[in-house]
Design a protein that fits this description.
The chain is α/β, with parallel strands linked by helices and 340 residues long. It has helices at 33-42, 53-56, 75-85, 100-113, 124-128, 130-133, 150-160, 203-209, 240-243, 253-267, 283-295, 315-323; strands at residues 10-15, 18-21, 47-52, 61-65, 68-71, 89-93, 118-122, 141-143, 170-174, 177-180, 222-225, 228-229, 249-250, 271-274, 301-309, 326-332. The protein has two domains: 10-180, Response regulator (Rossmann fold, 3-Layer(aba) Sandwich); 212-332, 2-Layer Sandwich (Transcription Regulator spoIIAA), CATH 3.30.750.210. The radius of gyration is 20 Å and the shape is globular.
Length: 340
């Protein structure tokens, strides 16, 4: 267990390199919303930098064998970035299981530079396999589930010299034993969250690379946003609903529209990619968003690269979607069996 006597001032949040099947030439590179939200929450109290290693080293492709390639900054380049910034905390997100070896390696690199650097990881893979992953000595903490509430609380306790062992939703080692504190508290009002700190991201690189989540886009000036968290469905193959606490929480239509307007004005965004698990679960709210795009005269295209629930679509909704700029829907066909 780390002694909570450190003074935390500088934080580096990292999105790790990514992997892709060698038979698929599309090397996706999209704004990492996870570290962007965390950066927005933390920057009011700390010096924060974001490092998207997938974007910064997108052209650096390495064959991993077994039909996979890695793309992103090399170990030496990542180590140099950490060394140059000299952070007290290095936080790494792990969106999927294929990134876990890179996340582990980044933690090792940070400890090689300075063993006093606090390494914290989060994301879907560490959340569900926390007790297995925390045995890695270079990883100090795992944040379970959403981290915008938990991470600031953990850092605050460090700076105040307070005990953190009872903190909700963290995993760590204490006296040689693993302690997993289950995630029980979730953010009820998502409108209270600041918009993602995109100003800390290499926004021009995403335009130049132009490989969105959905392979194709109508403009290279696109941006992903998420307007809700969770889903009420209980699909056995899906980890996302569990990650978000098996509850459905939404941002207000006004809050979503304000972010879209900011993206258009600040970054010349011409296409929005809604990455919700279930954008239209609340039909009234969804229609308020789409009608709001029309009423505010926001000239954008939009799509749903993460899928959309077929069972919530109807003619009224589809017509409003098209009128507000929708040009493509990824249909989430959950089963090929009609009874299911």
């Amino acid at each position: 267990m780390l002694e909570s006597t450190l003074t935390i001032e500088n934080i580096l949040l990292i999105y790790p390199p990514s992997t892709q099947s060698i038979v698929v030439p599309h090397l996706c590179c999209t704004h990492p919303l996870g570290i962007s939200y965390l950066g927005a929450v933390l920057k009011k109290d700390y010096e924060v930098k974001l490092l998207d290693t997938t974007a910064e080293g997108h052209q650096n492709v390495k064959n991993l064998g077994n039909g996979l390639v890695k793309y992103g900054l090399s170990d030496n380049e990542i180590k140099k970035r950490i060394l140059d910034y000299s952070p007290n905390v290095v936080g790494i997100t792990c969106l999927d299981s294929s990134q876990m070896p890179f996340v582990r390696r980044i933690c090792q690199l940070a400890k090689e530079i300075n063993p006093q650097i606090i390494t914290i990881i989060g994301g879907a893979h560490p959340t569900f396999l926390a007790s297995e992953i925390i045995i890695e000595s270079s990883i100090d903490f795992i944040i379970l589930g959403e981290g915008e509430g938990t991470l600031p609380s953990l850092l605050e306790r460090f700076n105040r010299g307070q005990d953190y062992s009872d903190l909700d939703g963290i995993t760590f080692r204490k006296d040689g034993k693993i302690q997993v504190n289950p995630k029980t508290k979730y953010i009820e009002n998502l409108d209270e969250l600041p918009f993602p700190a995109r100003e800390l991201l290499p926004m021009k690189k995403y335009v130049a690379i132009n490989t969105s989540m959905n392979v194709f886009s109508k403009s290279n000036h696109w941006a992903p946003i998420i307007t809700s968290r969770g889903c009420t469905a209980k699909c056995t193959f899906c980890s996302s609903a569990n990650f978000w606490g098996n509850q459905y929480r939404v941002r207000s239509a006004k809050n979503v529209l304000d972010e879209i307007e900011l993206l258009v004005k600040e970054y010349n965004i011409k296409e929005i990619q809604f990455c919700d698990d279930n954008l239209i679960l609340n039909k009234e709210r969804a229609m308020d968003i789409f009608q709001g795009i029309i009423d505010r005269k926001i000239k954008i295209f939009w799509n749903t690269p993460n899928g959309i629930a077929l069972w919530k679509l109807d003619e009224e909704l589809l017509q409003l979607m098209k009128a507000s700029g929708c040009y493509e829907l990824t249909l989430a066909i959950e089963s090929g069996d009609q009874e299911v």
